[in-house]
Amino acid sequence: EAGVTQSPTHLIKTRGQQATLRCSPISGHTSVYWYQQALGLGLQFLLWYDEGEERNRGNFPPRFSGRQFPNYSSELNVNALELEDSALYLCASSGRERLSAEQFFGPGTRLTVL
Amino acid sequence: AQKVTQAQTEISVVEKEDVTLDCVYETRDTTYYLFWYKQPPSGELVFLIRRNSFDEQNEISGRYSWNFQKSTSSFNFTITASQVVDSAVYFCALSVGGATNKLIFGTGTLLAVQP
User: Fold this and answer.
1) Environment class of residue B69 by beta-carbon count within 10 Å: exposed (0-12), middle (13-18) or buried (19+)?
2) Which residue in A30, A102, A109, A111 has the most chain B C-beta atoms within 10 A of its own C-beta, making it the best mutation to test that interface?
């Protein structure tokens, strides 16, 4: 069974640009989560999508946004990039069969903002 | 508010030693879930275990074991007879489920197993 996939692996942007990161969940999973792992800040929850709807959002500015498509894949968009947005962005997916089901993570997209 | 504390930033052991990674959590919810994840140098988080707040039984899986104690709000992870392949950052996480479902991570413990 294929795991969570993310693209691209690496992304280099300049300050002020927009970045789009993509995630495909494990087949059968309907929930997708996004986390940011920045140096010195640890793993921070960004967004949770389920059945195409945004269910919860972490403490991030509105320029972090995303969506979930009918096939449950997801996009994370970061507008007006700032230097501190440089981080590893991890996507995870889970099924809905139980509360707080284990989340399975993808390999991440490393975003570098110059 | 929920919080996870992993006080050990780095641990270095020699192969075949046993090592325990500490995790202390804070939550006022009576229903919650605890997790451990491993992050090898490749970066991908690997799920190790999920435990709910009503199940205080310790669990053993091969060389891995987990000790959950509600009285001390701890969920410690022990690796027996460590191996070089165990070298990674280990994260403890908390979720209170329901409307949030997010994982609240500790800061991680870097485990280095020397040959």
Assistant:
1) exposed
2) A102
